[in-house]
TrEMBL record:
Protein name (database record): N-acetyltransferase domain-containing protein
Organism in which the protein naturally occurs: Corethrella appendiculata
InterPro entries (UniProt xref): Acyl-CoA_N-acyltransferase, Acyl_CoA_acyltransferase, DUF5645, GCN5-like_dom
MF terms (GO), sorted A to Z: acyltransferase activity, transferring groups other than amino-acyl groups
Coiled coil: none
Domain (GCN5-related N-acetyltransferase Rv2170-like) ranges: 204-289
Domain DUF5645: 2-126
């Protein structure tokens, strides 16, 4: 196949290339590096533990077999097919290697309904030309949003107080079913995915002191950013989301030495307004392209 899996050394070197770019390709660095961290963690899991982890956390990264990886950084990152996501990217201006990979690879299983994630505007034409036009029987839907980020300096100044009637603690595995039940984007593999995020990445919850029930939560997502921020409806308006954003941002800066980031879909004006208050700013627009079926 034209796509050849990267060796560990090649993957490590590719991650460092993106890391050295700073903010320019921050989203790519975060995605590849969190996968590298998962890879190390999962190698220590026994077979039963490994099978319990979401396929979205089991990623393989491929390069153009005859390409120049160091110069063009053309790659495809593909998860397992039970929770199928694909990220493709290149810095090659002509996108020649990327187009060849799309046109010739047999590694993409269209029947499994992959979600193409974090597709930037400059890569949309490749999707339409090399996927839709060449495979006219494929249907797909598009979800669009923006990549937002903050600065380490801003986050280090974050301060918050926890109300006396609640406690702030790391999320627990047993919180996953409730989180999934209230998540507006839930799907068949959602509980396995969220459970895996809690195990591998962690997150925080605000719990009632009186009965121990979780009231609000936030998770460090698969893009090494802020995700799944939600408060149960009866507890909205108490400032819990603000506390959780500040807590996770400080965790990402102080413990991970990373820049806090998040993705917000266009129609979520409430979240856009909330994150703007903490001086998050839009960096670029991106798209999630979900393959529905191949007739």
């Amino acid at each position: 196949d034209i796509l050849e899996e990267l060796s560990n050394d090649e993957l490590f070197n590719l991650i460092n290339l993106f890391k050295n770019d700073g903010e320019k390709h921050l989203h790519i660095y975060l995605y590849l590096n969190i996968y590298y961290i998962w890879k190390i963690k999962l190698e220590k899991f026994d077979e039963i533990e490994y099978q319990e982890i979401s396929d979205k956390c089991k990623i393989r990264v491929y390069k153009h077999r005859n390409g120049n990886l160091e110069l063009n950084r053309t790659f495809f990152a593909m998860t397992g097919e039970k929770d199928y996501a694909i990220l493709y990217f290149t810095v090659e201006q002509s996108q020649k290697e990327l187009k060849e990979c799309f046109a010739k690879t047999k590694r993409i299983n269209w029947n499994a309904g992959p979600m193409f994630v974090l597709v930037e505007n400059q890569f949309l034409d490749i999707f339409y030309e090399n996927v839709k036009l060449s495979k006219a029987n494929i249907e797909f839907e598009v979800h669009s949003g923006f990549f937002w980020m903050n600065s380490k300096e801003e986050v280090l100044n974050f301060q918050f107080e926890i109300p006396d009637d609640v406690i702030l603690e790391p999320l627990k595995i047993e919180d996953a079913p409730l989180i999934v039940s209230l998540w507006p984007h839930k799907y068949p593999e959602a509980e396995r995915f969220i459970t895996s995020m809690i195990k591998l990445n962690g997150g925080y919850g605000i719990y009632s002191k009186s009965n121990g029930n979780i009231l609000s939560w936030i998770i460090k997502n698969e893009y090494w950013g802020i995700g799944l921020l939600q408060t149960i409806s009866a507890e909205c308006g108490k400032g819990y989301a603000k506390i959780l954003i500040k807590k996770l941002c400080k965790d990402i800066v102080e413990n991970d030495d990373n820049i806090p980031s998040c993705y917000i879909v266009d129609k979520n004006t409430k979240s856009c307004a909330l994150f703007s208050k903490f001086h998050f700013y839009r960096v670029f627009s991106c798209h999630w392209l979900k393959i529905l079926r191949e007739n």
